Amino acid sequence: MEVVESINLITRKPGVRGGRPCIRGTGLKVSDIVMAMRYHDRSPKQVSEGYQVSLSEVYAALSYYHAHKREIDDDIDDQIAKARKLRDEHLASGKPSLLS
Fold first, then answer.
1. Which residues touch 22 (CB under 8 Å, ≥6 apart)?
2. Which residue range is the domain that position 81 belongs to?
3. Which residue has the higher pLDDT, 38 or 97?
4. How many domains does the chain have?
5. Do 76 and 31 contact (CB within 8 A), yes or no?
């Protein structure tokens, strides 16, 4: 008899992070893991240590990402677009930057 095992490390809750998939028990989104690796060139171990989650949770997030790539990529694109819009609005306002 075949038994299918499941690793339940990724959850969605409507009131947590807009219902986006997160590592269970945290507010850490799957997209946060992907962006850390894609845009900040972090290894799974560095992500695990930096976000204080287990390596298995990082790999579960990556597995979820690969199974739902389009959804997560669209979410990342939306986050980037919103960040750029906020940056552009701030620059247009003439207010000094917090980073200067």
1. 10, 11, 12, 13, 16, 28, 29, 30
2. 10-92
3. 38
4. 1
5. yes
